[in-house]
Amino acid sequence: MRKTASRYQKASKKYKETILDEFVQSTGYHRTYASFLLSHHGKRVVIARKTSIVGDIRKRVRKKREPVYGTEGLAEALRILLNAAMLFERERFLVAAPFKQWRERLLGEMVYLQLDARYEKVREGGIAIDEALFAGNRH
Predict the structure, then answer these.
(1) What's this model's pTM, rounded to 2 decimal places?
(2) 126 phi and psi, to 5 degrees?
(3) Largest CA distance in the chain
(4) SS3 call for 27
């Protein structure tokens, strides 16, 4: 490829067209990009004040890939997602229904037990110790 670039740089305008056609055919590059690469191979090109590139025809440009999904594939993917979402919602409803019934059940009369605890100093055998006292009331 370097030989092609050097031949292109030294050739006349008429012969450059033939070399460019062959290069485009073999690489698949766009004609304008191929012409730029061949004419600037090995030369430093200043794009901005601080930015410059060196033309190198050995670097390959990835060709565009065909799209993976068409409209049919997209519709199928959306259908699968919708079915999964509906299944998830159904399962959530089946799980949530018994909890809703339990939450809304009638409780009837409730009995509450109120507990209280505190520490008191108690003398036992002439020694003062902490003793826990528990008290409870039923409502």
Answers:
(1) 0.35
(2) 85, 5
(3) 122
(4) helix
